What we know:
Elements lengths: L1 E7 L9 H11 L9 H11 L5 H15 L5 H15 L5 H12 L3 E9 H9 L5 E9 L5 E6 L1 H4 L2 H12 L1 E10 L5 H4 L4 E5 L3 H10 L2 E6 L2 E5 L4
Parallel strand pairs: 1-2, 1-5, 2-3, 5-6, 6-7
Antiparallel strand pairs: 3-4, 7-8
Helix pairs in contact: 1-4, 2-3, 4-6
Amino acid sequence: MKKVAIFDIDGTIFRSSLLIEVTEALIQEELFPKKTAAVYATSFKNWIDRKDSYEKYIWDVVAAFEKNIVGVRHDDFARISKEVVNFHKNRVYRYTRELVGELKKKEYYILAISHSPKELVDAFCKNFGFNKVYGRVYEVGENGRFTGKTLYADLINNKASILDRAVQKEGLTLVNSVGVGDSEGDITFLSKVKKPICFNPNSKLYQHAKKAGWKVVVERKDVIYILNSKS
Length: 231
């Protein structure tokens, strides 16, 4: 049985959000109206000014994307997704990039979970040799255009269930399993693995990590800090 390692992607490997980048690209290509950015402009400013959370900002981007993807041709979205990934594929954190490489050498089964569209996550993770990728799946109608419906929403919204599903389906073991996440939404799957790593965690995940004694890693500029969560 292969050991498993599970990674969040946005903000954990990729130094931004695939969803944010593709939404901005769709606006630039005029596949989304220019006013789309107004949906998350305030929460973006509040986050930049450290007056509100990144989570508020990213969920406003999700809302803007899901409202405006309706009627967009899947072929156009796939083209833009490829361009976004090609442009940003090397914009990654060194610690997690090297960790993926080390675990692959040890023959771990590497899982990726993201709330970004699966087309994006598939293309991005292909560069790192992930074994399985989970992302948000949006329905495409017979006319080749997005309907606005999110498929398998219950599954993708519960990262612990995804891990359980993969372990059972792929015949994996949680012995010496590794998990890497950056926000409180990752606590569910980090609680299941034997070696949880909180990478550049937000406040809620960091506070949980301190209580649980989980490893905390911070990468800032060209320095990687390994923190003792119990200190």
